[in-house]
Amino acid sequence: MTLYMIAIAFSAGIISAMVGAFQECMLAGLVMVAMTAFPQYSFLGDTVSYGLFPYIAFTGGVVATAYASKVRKHDLGGAAILTSLTKFQDISVLLVAAAVSILSMITAWLINKTGWVIDAGSVSVIFYSCLTRKFLGDGKFLNRSMKAIPRYSGNKKEWIYWAFLGLAVGFMAGGIVMKSGNPWLPFFLSLASLVFWFIDPNFPPTHHITCTAGYAMLATGSLAWAAVWGMIASIVSTIIGDAINTDASTHIDPPATTIGVLSILIYLIYYIIL
Hints:
Blueprint: H1 3-19, H2 21-37, H3 44-52, H4 56-70, H5 91-113, H6 120-136, H7 157-180, H8 185-192, H9 207-220, H10 223-244, H11 254-273
């Protein structure tokens, strides 16, 4: 842990609040894809790893959004993570984002020091997002109206679609890892692809699928298992989104929660049990 790392996390948190937490993830993906394409700019890796790397600055943006809504009473919802908080010109909001990003980076750093092969950044997001829901939201974690969502009643075929999508994307992610030797490249490509969401909101995020498949590929070396875990990630993220992030007072990120939980599960199965 160095002052440089802390300073980068501080600045990245402000950037996250400035552009919006969702947009920050896309920015991080674009930066890392560029670094992969142009390895002579490897210094960019430090900038991302210590600050922009999802989900460090992202966490700062999520908490700052809830703070701006609940404490500062600005005109936005506590879960409105696509909102650029610069519009309020409130320094305290930027400082909250910066402080939480530092805490998130330290938390991820401590988890990584254990040597566990889990996604420390996502685990950090889960922790701070839950605290945010408790203290800056309404404290409610479960959606009591899940049964009203069509895929849990009439439209059962939708599960087949999400499972098939996860299987295909997971297989592709595993193939990229196998050919490139870079377990994070599919994840960064997925983050960068979020730019298409701004063109068509129906475009599905896939970073939870590619990241989970990457962990599975690291653990097993098998394209088949990468595909299977990609399918599991697709289904789990859908359920998490419906259960804890629908009509919610603050944002608990379904992809990050999926990555954190499944990375722990993959670690326990393949590194501890087997």
